[in-house]
User: Which sequence fits this backbone?
């Protein structure tokens, strides 16, 4: 198939990737989203905006991040060569800053003075607070009381960066309630505020905008890999939570002879509530303002989800992923908690790189596939670094003594 016109065609003007996406909103917010869409469509063609974003990426974020050949790990697994795109080396430790800096710059260009968001584990909150400090914007982050207690280091980071962290004590006091609280705030304050969504989810234009801001990841990786090897990788892979690091990594390769695989968290197993593999076990439905594939409970509401990687525990997935699977361009597989933890230890021991537990899911899949392939190459997007996960991993799995050596 020819995908050379894919980016021009999708999403449609009203934000659809086939039947997925759109903007399912309360009427008061329709003009607010329309304003953001128009502003984005204007400035993404402005050389002033583009040059400023490029400067920020180079001077503040430390881009381009390198591509790295895992020679030790590859040798252990046979003859297939594993490479990493090192988004863990992005300032603040993950790919999330790519879209938060874009969203912050957009807010600045639109003359907004405040950005808000919800956060679960605190990763999106930290990245957004970083962007707010850089741009001199006010920043409010909503976080469930339970999550605040669990994620003390990230709460401290947000506060040091100048963000106002609001503790949400309704319901289960976690991510879902934080989303509702942030949404309430936005309904009241949309005139001077932008609600910065943390992945390629939510109503149009966010899945498109966040994708565009993450596109740089795959664009760099494609050039770097070609320069290093003279070839395309046989397979590229990334972990899928909401789907932002993966979509930005995948799309620049869409018209290349490359197999593309997204990896979802299988958690503790296939039972509903024990995983967050929305694409693998979900069905079509609308939540948080967009139509996609989601995990539902008996009442059709978003189901409780679980993963050892808190950045992956979202009960739906960006609409473009649902579409890319439907048209047969991207395949979705799963990796369990244990497989991810094993990959976490292996990459640390054999390459000196401690990966985020989220990213470890993609590494785990690549390790399994490398053994099966026995030749060729796999390029993995290493979305973030694992310092944030060390305490948890050590408490539950020690220093990896119980994981066998290959
Ligand atoms: C948040 C996060 C993810 C998952 O989000 P996506 O939108 O699917 O990319 C993956 N890796 C890291 C390190 C994260 O912080």
Assistant:
């Amino acid at each position: 198939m020819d995908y050379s016109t894919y980016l021009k065609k999708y999403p449609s003007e009203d934000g659809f990737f086939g039947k997925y996406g759109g903007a399912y909103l309360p009427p008061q917010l329709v003009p607010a989203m329309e304003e953001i869409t128009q502003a984005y469509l204007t400035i993404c063609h402005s050389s002033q905006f583009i040059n400023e974003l490029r400067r920020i990426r180079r001077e503040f974020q430390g881009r381009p991040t390198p591509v790295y050949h895992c020679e030790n790990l590859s040798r252990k697994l046979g003859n297939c060569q594993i490479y990493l795109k090192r988004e863990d080396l992005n300032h603040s430790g993950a790919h999330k800053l790519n879209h938060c800096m874009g969203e912050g710059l957009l807010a600045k260009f639109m003359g907004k003075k405040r950005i808000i968001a919800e956060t679960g584990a605190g990763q999106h909150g930290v990245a957004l607070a970083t962007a707010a400090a850089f741009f001199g914007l006010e920043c409010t982050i909503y976080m469930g009381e339970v999550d605040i207690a669990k994620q003390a280091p990230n709460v401290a980071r947000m506060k040091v960066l100048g963000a106002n962290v609001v503790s949400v004590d309704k319901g289960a006091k976690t991510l879902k309630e934080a989303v509702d609280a942030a949404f309430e705030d936005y309904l009241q304050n949309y005139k001077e505020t932008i609600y910065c969504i943390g992945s390629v989810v939510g109503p149009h234009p966010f899945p498109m905008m966040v994708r565009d801001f993450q596109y740089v990841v795959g664009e760099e990786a494609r050039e770097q890999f070609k320069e290093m090897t003279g070839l395309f990788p046989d397979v590229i892979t990334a972990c899928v939570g909401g789907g932002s690091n993966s979509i930005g990594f995948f799309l620049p390769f869409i018209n290349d002879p490359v197999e593309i695989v997204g990896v979802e968290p299988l958690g503790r197993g296939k039972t509903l509530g024990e995983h967050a593999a929305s694409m693998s076990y979900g069905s079509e439905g609308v939540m948080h303002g967009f139509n996609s594939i989601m995990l539902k409970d008996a009442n059709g509401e978003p189901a409780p989800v679980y993963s050892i990687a808190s950045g992956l525990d979202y009960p739906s997935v960006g609409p473009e992923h649902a579409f890319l699977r439907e048209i047969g361009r991207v395949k979705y597989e799963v990796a369990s908690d244990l497989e991810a933890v094993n990959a976490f230890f292996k990459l640390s021991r054999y390459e000196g790189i401690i990966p985020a537990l989220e990213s470890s899911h993609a590494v785990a899949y690549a390790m399994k596939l490398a053994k099966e392939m026995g030749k060729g190459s796999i390029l993995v997007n290493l979305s973030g670094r694992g310092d944030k996960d060390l305490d948890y991993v050590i408490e539950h799995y020690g220093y990896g003594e119980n994981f066998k050596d290959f």
User: Anything to note?
Assistant: The chain has a mean pLDDT of 96. The longest strand covers residues 259-267.
